[in-house]
Amino acid sequence: MSLIVEATHLSRFYGIVLGLNNVSFTIGTGITGVVGPNGAGKTTLFRLLTGQIKPSSGELRVLGGLPWRDPAVRAQLAYCPEDEAVPPNIKPRDWLIALGMISGLSSREAKVRATAALERVRLPSVHWNKNVTAYSKGMKQRVKLAQCLLHEPRLIILDEPMNGLDPMGREELGNVLRELAADGTSVVISSHILQDLEALCRSFILLRWGRMPSSSNKLANARTEATAAATPVAVETGTDVTPPPMPATPPRRWPSETTIRCDDAPKLARFLFAQDLLRGCDLDDEGQTLVARWRDPAAFYENFHGILLESGVTLHEINAKGSALERAIEPPPLP
Ligand SMILES: Nc1ncnc2c1ncn2[C@@H]1O[C@H](COP(=O)(O)OP(=O)(O)OP(=O)(O)O)[C@@H](O)[C@H]1O
Questions:
Q1: Which of 10, 12, 16, 17 has the most ligand 1 atoms within 8 A of CB, as the residue to mutate?
Q2: Residue 329 domain flag
Q3: Nearest CA to ligand 1 atom 17
Q4: Segments forming the whole domain that contains residue 152
Q5: Contacts with 237 (C-beta within 8 Å, 6 or more apart), sequence order
Q6: Are residues 59 and 208 in the same domain?
Q7: What ranges does the record give for the region Disordered, renumbered to this chain (predicted)?
Q8: CB 172 within 8 A of CB 137
Q9: Does residue 95 share a domain with residue 168?
Q10: E strands in the chain
């Protein structure tokens, strides 16, 4: 895996305010997630990576150079901010062509690249000549991403691109990012929707209060961690399921989402909805997997054995996705 970013003892202070404090990590090719609560330092990290600000101390190399100093490095980067970046009352293809021409492309080349970028983000061509004012949030996100792709960057940094998208929109955007990564574009993405990142990313940078909370203070390959740690209950076949551990003291924080594989996921979903346990759910096409979003996770986990027996389905596997990441960014308990 070639290294795209290398940071060693990297810090950035705003006067006496801590933005990032002594973090060391590497980012390789593929999709890397940046996870952390508000004020954790995600935007500070992105501003450093894109050369908008300089480190206060430590070392940072992006694509082998110093982004705040080297225009050749910045020319290979793209930054997709959280806020809307496309002005109202404009057609997306016109907007992209204009941006290409402002950047020095010929009109012909700008048209070719605008078309390629819109195709890349899978915005159906029937919409290309419509005004973006009439676009859905998901369509606007795609135009913003297309804007990033115009100059064919090696590294794309996306700040909360899933915000405001429905599950289908998040899945579609995730597929676009997977394709980009498969074609060699490195992607760094932040999101508060931890499950989205778990499904998408191979590696994570976990931030809290400007620091990386993992004790080793290095890039956390949390996918492996998450897969290992996010299975709170035994994997069994049949309905004879080992119950989950009893809540510890202080009361345990149960995962808000659980993936359940069984012989009849629609039947299980109907049962759980009838019990008023579900806030929402997703089903796979084969009717074998249910991703359950709990109204009150404790109500499920504390009577887990009985609920699943009563549902009448044959259980294959249960996996509490996202819980490892949720735990990783959780503040430590008070002394
Ligand atoms: N320009 C600035 N001047 C002073 N303090 C700043 C500045 N930018 C960020 N900070 C502070 O640095 C810390 C990290 O902020 P940052 O915006 O990087 O976090 P974040 O993880 O992106 O948060 P959010 O998810 O809310 O956007 C916060 O304490 C913030 O108040």
A1: 17
A2: no
A3: 43
A4: 3-223
A5: 314, 315, 316
A6: yes
A7: 236-259
A8: no
A9: yes
A10: 3-14, 17-28, 31-35, 57-62, 77-80, 155-159, 186-190, 203-206, 257-262, 278-283, 289-294, 315-319
**Rounded-to-integer distance, Cα 334 and Cα 309, Å:** 38
Whether residues 235 and 143 share a domain: the answer is no
For the stretch 52-109, pLDDT in tens is 999 999 999 999 999 999 999 999 999 998 887 788 888 999 999 999 999 888 999 9
ipTM, interface predicted TM-score of the complex: 0.96
Ligand 1, atom nearest to 19 Cα: 12
Q: Do 254 and 209 fall within a single domain?
A: no
Q: How far apart are CA 27 and CA 81, in angstroms?
A: 20
Which of 23, 43, 47, 205 is the best mutation target for the ligand 1 pocket, counting ligand atoms within 8 Å of the beta carbon and taking the most? 43
282 closest CA partner among 199, 203, 204? 199
Identify whether residues 238 and 199 lie together within a single domain.
no
End-of-domain residue from the set 223, 242, 268: 223
Rounded-to-integer distance, Cα 161 and Cα 156, Å = 12
Contact by Cβ (8 Å): 95, 87: yes
Cβ-Cβ contacts under 8 Å for 223 (sequence gap 6 or more): 198, 201, 202, 203, 204
CATH number of the domain that 44 lies in? 3.40.50.300
Ligand 1, atom 2: nearest CA belongs to which residue? 14
**259 and 126 inside one domain:** no
Place of tokens 């249910």: 290
Domain count, the chain: 2
Q: Which helix (H) or strand (E) holds 156?
A: strand 155-159
What are 106-141's pLDDT values in tens digits? 999 999 999 999 998 988 888 988 898 888 888 888
| Tokens 């508060």 found at | 192
- Cα 210 to middle of ligand 1, angstroms: 9
Taking the whole predicted model, whether its pTM rises above 0.80 is answered as no
Q: Is 208 in the pocket of ligand 1 (CB under 6 A)?
A: no
Cis status of the peptide bond prior to 335, with omega within 30 of 0: no
